[in-house]
Amino acid sequence: MKRSLFAAVLLASASFSWASPRGARAPRLGPVPGQALPGLALPGVSLPAAVNGLGPAAGLPGALGVPATEVADSPTPLVLVQIDGLGSAYLEQAITEGYAPNLKRLIDGGFRALSIKTGVPTVTMSAQTALFYGKFVPGNEWHSKALGGETVANDFERKIDPSEGLLHGGRAYLSERSGGAARTADVKRVLLDDEARVGWTAAHLKELSVGFPLLMRYFWAHGLLRAPLRLAGRVLSDVVRLRRDFKKKGFTSALDKKAPFFLPLVDHLWSPIAEQGVVESIRDGARVSYADLAAYDEEAHYYGPASKQAFSALRRIDAHVGRIAGEAEKRGARLLVFSDHGQTPTLNFQKLYGRTVQQALDELSGEPGALIFSHVYSMGNIYARDTREVLSLEALERRFPGLVDKLLAHPGFGLVAGRNADGSLALRGRPLSEYADARISEAQLKEQIRDYLAVEETGDLVVFSPLVDGQTIDYNPKYTLASAHGGIGGEQMHPFALFDPAKLALDAASWLDLRGLHRALKSQIAPYREELEPQPAMPSGAWGKIKAGLLILLAVILFLAGVAMIPLPGPGVPAMLIALALLSRYFGWARKLRDWIKRAVTRMLEARQKRKRDSR
Fold first, then answer.
1. What is the dihedral of CA 556, 559, 561, 564, to 10 degrees?
2. What pLDDT does 62 receive?
3. HSE (CB half, 13 Å, CA atoms) of 218?
């Protein structure tokens, strides 16, 4: 009964969201068939002669070169669209090959595209933490000496005041982190918190009550019959394709077997919800909105960053960006399209050497279990199990004689970083010149590694994969990837930023990593203000009054039907609550009653979860 009541409240909220007024369809930025590119030039990137400038001003230096007076004096809503895993060089290739016509049109219209730097590590959770809070974490998960076990990056956000986040008071969609956003959909951190607070069922019902109305309005904008049929067809087609291809490739781990069902949902279900959420955020004037469109990253992991499959996913992302960009242009919002990292082709350590890195480490140390390895894909952290202190390189060598030399003698490890006794950076192994390129110098790489070792709970030693013939080695034992990111070397270090310099002042030449982007955006974002739900009121205009009358009539019928169903079989209480949600748009008393019921049910479920935890 309790679950049914909460489900009814959530469905009532969904009904209210579906009935809420929305603006007209946004103009789309369509493809530009047959039009030659003006060329693409990210600062410091050597490109073929046919591709020689990104935007109308090719060959510009890394500094923006836009006077502050050209940037709008009064901050307008900021829209952040992240294309997960797309490196700047692969962006150029995709535009050249016609996979991103809307991104190209932005560039043709005056947007500037720059190659920027992620920092270490080059993984999404750490990159999002740097973007939202100006801080790095060791990886997606790592060993905590303080806790005596593994911890995950999502726990980090629980320790931070939401007001510190870049998205405070704004909205976030399809993200690992909330960034302090007030409204979210498909945000993992929020879902985990809700599960702990009110239980798994109620948390997922709440998520459904937010995402389902967004999906319905996306269908309305893209064709109420055509859009859902296309979605279902694409999901089914991709499941069949991925299962067939994974079988051929020999991808057989437990997570590899789940991926063919997960990837199509990211591409065809959650990305449309994110698109619709951002479009509505722009229409509502939200101070900042964010979405992480991850389909390219997922396909690139399994097929390669320049594969047809990855670029096809990028084409669909480009369509989402086109609609968002059209709405931003229409409403005068500022748009930043960017990525968090790139990808570098990789080979799997376990497939190459017949054992996991942890097993290799046990052999090299001579003490199985004395050292703990935590992977960050093409890099990893090594911890001494028997001490809570961070060991210097000298102390670690005394405890495990010859360990560093043994690691470097193994072909699967390229560079080892540690701390000298005085706290300074110690680097052993391959020269940094093997990892540096035209966009990042040896000195910058050294500084990034030094900053990483200053992050709380990084390992006593940090190992980096070698970079040989443009390929790294992936240390993760959970699934098989064709390209990866995490460490240093190749395109994984080089995301991009695409923006209108007349609206955003971004001087990427001064950034060592994504904390530079955080600082730049933090200084230009609109002041925080609480988003308030519009007050109940009858609409003006003939059509508005007709629509309101029909909804009120529907609500009254539904309420009376609910009353009739109470002594009879049927969902009487849910029907009454949905009717109440519809009426709350027009009548203050209905809204107060709706909010009171929601608070009461939430308190009841929180108390239930507390009793469960206390009884364990």
1. -130
2. 32
3. 26
Is residue 40 within 8 Å of 53, Cβ to Cβ?
yes
List Cβ neighbours of 33 (8 Å cut-off, separation of 6 or more): 101
Quote the mean pLDDT of the chain: 86
Which three-class secondary structure state does DSSP give residue 88?
A: helix
Tokens 């904008």 sit on residue: 221
Distance between CA 277 and CA 544 in Å, rounded? 23
Is 60 exceeded by the pLDDT of residue 290? yes
Residue for token pair 């919002």: 333
User: What SS3 string covers 101-131?
Assistant: HHHHHHHHCCCEEEECCCCCCCCHHHHHHHH
Rounded CA-CA distance 251/254 in Å is 9
Gyration radius of the chain's alpha carbons: 26
d(CA 539, CA 243): 51
Contact of 192 with 204, CB cutoff 8 Å: no
Q: What is the pLDDT of residues 314-340, one digit of tens each?
A: 999 999 999 999 999 999 999 999 999
Placement of tokens 């049929």 in the chain:
229
Reduced 3-state DSSP string for 228-290? HHHHHHHHHHHHHHHHHHHHHHCCCCHHHHHHHHHHHHHHHHHHHHHHHHHHHHHHHCCCEEE
pTM of the model: 0.84
DSSP annotation of 16 reads H
CA distance 604 to 589: 23
DSSP-derived letter for residue 54 is S
Q: By the 8 A CB rule, do 304 and 483 touch? A: yes
- In this predicted structure, the answer to whether residue 7 has a pLDDT above a threshold of 50 is no
Between 184 and 7, the higher pLDDT residue: 184
Q: Measured between alpha carbons, how far apart are the two ends of the chain, in Å? A: 24
**Strand, helix or coil at 381?**
strand
Least confident of 60-74, 184-198, 392-406, 435-449: 60-74
Find out whether 523 and 515 touch, Cβ atoms under 8 Å: no
| DSSP annotation of 417 | E
